[in-house]
Amino acid sequence: MQNQTIAAISTAPGIGAISIVRMSGDEALEILSKLFHSSHTNSFPSHTIRYGKIMDDSQLIDEVLVSYFKAPNTFTREDIVEINTHGGVYIAERVLGLCLSHGARLAENGEFTERAFLNGRIDLTEAESVLDLIESRSELSLKLATQGLEGKIRDLTQTLRNQLLDIIAKIEVNIDYPEYDDVQELTETILIPNTEQVKKSIQHILDQAVYGQLIKDGVSTAIVGRPNVGKSSLLNALINEEKAIVTDVQGTTRDTVEGRLNIGGVTLNLVDTAGIRETVDQIEKIGIEKSVKAIENARLILLVIDQSEPLQEDDKKLLAMTENKERIIILNKDDLPKKVDRTFKDAIPISSLLKKNLDRLEETIHTMYLSGYLDTSQDVYLSNARHVGKFKEALTHIDQALITARNHYPVDMIEMDLKEAWLRLGEVMGEVSDTALIDTLFSQFCLGK
Length: 449
Ligand SMILES: Nc1nc2c(ncn2[C@@H]2O[C@H](COP(=O)(O)OP(=O)(O)OP(=O)(O)O)[C@@H](O)[C@H]2O)c(=O)[nH]1
Ligand SMILES: [Mg+2]
Description:
Elements: E1 6-9, E2 18-24, H1 28-33, E3 36-37, E4 48-56, E5 59-69, E6 80-86, H2 89-101, E7 105-106, H3 111-118, H4 124-135, H5 139-149, H6 152-176, H7 183-217, E8 219-224, H8 231-239, E9 257-263, E10 266-272, H9 282-297, E11 300-306, H10 313-321, E12 326-332, E13 348-349, H11 358-369, H12 385-406, H13 411-428, H14 435-443
Helix pairs in contact: 4-5, 6-7, 6-13, 7-12, 12-13
The structure holds guanosine-5'-triphosphate and magnesium ion.
């Protein structure tokens, strides 16, 4: 079935220098001809730009530049027309309205990219990388997104699939011509070692993906401690903004306060929490429950201790509560005389008030999550949760295949799991006809993308 021509405003809403109305589909040029008046509309060579006027009957709407890209060398592999209007919400909407009244349909979120995928211009990993590219917030997350865009995730996945296919082919030959191959020998010398090789590669990719996901999603970090130790002061000092209220009243912070910090490519998603202590105050109690939840949900805990006071029961409780988590102990108020009666290994003395020694804290966090791990010029990092999920599923099937092989079950049983693994990896690139999945994925895009 022929696709209807779609249209949307592709630039961000609001006032800007230019806005772009984009159309994709067989009728794009024909629709354009009904609203675009130019001194040479009779010929519009592909991949060129024309100056002209957008007219609604005899009314001039705007002076514009129009680019025309003829299929198939276009983003969607369909004809594409892009009308560059003057920036402004109303003008762009007016031009879009004209496109729609002359036969285009309003595009859905991500529909241009979805067409690029459906028409085979890009695979799913590349389409998802477009989204990651748009959402990237640091140099490193941008690098990861471009890895996907360059097709590196596809190539990596395809290599593994070919290796699996090779093993499957050997099994097929054995099933078809059992007289030529000794099953025992085939299993011992080829199936098990080759499958183990694939397993090792997938395992390595999944180990690396932990860093990829960290870069993409950031480290969820909770700032915790008993009241008045300076948690909110620390949040404010780190993000350089007076975001959380700071007072010398115990129990100032009642609700969690969030902030974001980029430390050399590692994004910290910070949550400042209510000070934890025994209390009868109803509101404070709710805040404290939220703090406990924040501790559970966080990957990294910044446990703040006021080193100008002796250690208190509430401090001890928090030390015990966070013992098994990734944690940095922070000895705050280092500008005051030291009264804390215990030493802590690897604790970092700081002063949130004077912003003293924060660089050491940041260095520690950076080393914890990045140093030595990421080399985007050498390795490909999965950062997309869907890809990681599919790789994990593939690994489960490969493990099962190995168990079957080691137990000397018939080779077609090994093959079943290897095929499943091969299919799961295919799903990474979108080799599925699951339209619900595809629709959900592309709906995350903005309109006009
Ligand atoms: N001298 C000194 N005072 C500090 C420092 N950090 C915070 N304070 C003071 O300690 C008091 C409490 O600070 P907050 O940041 O509100 O403490 P909190 O841990 O968020 O407190 P709650 O929200 O009540 O749990 C304020 O008066 C701050 O100015 C520091 O490094 N040195
Ligand atoms: Mg506070």
